[in-house]
Fold this protein.
Amino acid sequence: MTTDATPRPGRVVLEAIGRVVGGRSEAFEDHWSGVQAVVRLDAGRFTPSAVAGLEDFSHLQVVFHFDRIDPATISTGPRHPRGDPAWPPVGVFAHRGPRRPNRLGVSCCRLLAIEGLDLHVAGLDALSGSPVLDVKPYLAEFAPRRPTAQPAWATELMSDYYG
């Protein structure tokens, strides 16, 4: 993701650190757990030393850009999740879908192997070719310390997402 680098108040300029290779090339909502892909880090910017120690973690958090979403299709007002009128209309920040103001995705996925700058993962819900903006090891201490709550529609929506 390359943008105009002119500094302006409120403007954030990001440069992809890599790309997703493999996995799905077309978006559909469910059954991501078995999808395997590679997060290929940019060899022009990094050496394998950048991932030293990462092999000791079971999961990664990957921040990526929904680069195929047309910004004109983003609406911040209430809408039905996945367009399903059985679920209540909620605002953009109550969704995790790709039509977001900055088109950022965050996914927690299993780390399968590391080969040089290739991070082999499973369950990354990003499309092949998606720009990767950051990779972080998943730490249990960042998980909520108390029980979490979510509405019934969200549980129903996610029932097959990783199934």
